[in-house]
């Protein structure tokens, strides 16, 4: 994705930024596409709306699935830096080109015309890039699944992962993501061996 060029503004690689963001946060695609720059503050992002399709196939902003979906999660410093650079790029392009528009809601992931991205278009674009790269397409939810599994393999608690993903309970998280991976199994056995040696 680093080498991907958009048709109108070669340097404006918003699909790469979106994919990186999804992989680092575990947000649902509908949540990420509804984010505004004002939702990011002090190294955290607040999730409080999502995009959906309304009448005439228009994008509308809606409430989230459940109260647990409303959350504020931390962002790693590398992601914060990339987001800052991405925002600066949007501002720069907007000041140089009349045809580059900033969305009136100041959404983060917009096209060069200032429009909301739609999940279906994002999926088709990513699917095309996967095909060109020779890898199978796993859907945008694959970023969420990978994020959760990597957190668990890194030793994050089930409660932390559950809250980060906006699940109602840890039961949902465990039934979805705790198909014990080889790494988790090895780590847990190592903990047990270490404990019993004492």
Automatic annotation (TrEMBL):
<keyword id="KW-0238">DNA-binding</keyword>
<dbReference type="InterPro" id="IPR050090">
    <property type="entry name" value="Tyrosine_recombinase_XerCD"/>
</dbReference>
<dbReference type="InterPro" id="IPR011010">
    <property type="entry name" value="DNA_brk_join_enz"/>
</dbReference>
<feature type="domain" description="Tyr recombinase">
    <location>
        <begin position="1"/>
        <end position="190"/>
    </location>
</feature>
<comment type="similarity">
    <text>Belongs to the 'phage' integrase family.</text>
</comment>
<dbReference type="InterPro" id="IPR002104">
    <property type="entry name" value="Integrase_catalytic"/>
</dbReference>
<dbReference type="Pfam" id="PF00589">
    <property type="entry name" value="Phage_integrase"/>
</dbReference>
<keyword id="KW-0233">DNA recombination</keyword>
<protein>
    <submittedName>
        <fullName>Site-specific integrase</fullName>
    </submittedName>
</protein>
<dbReference type="InterPro" id="IPR013762">
    <property type="entry name" value="Integrase-like_cat_sf"/>
</dbReference>
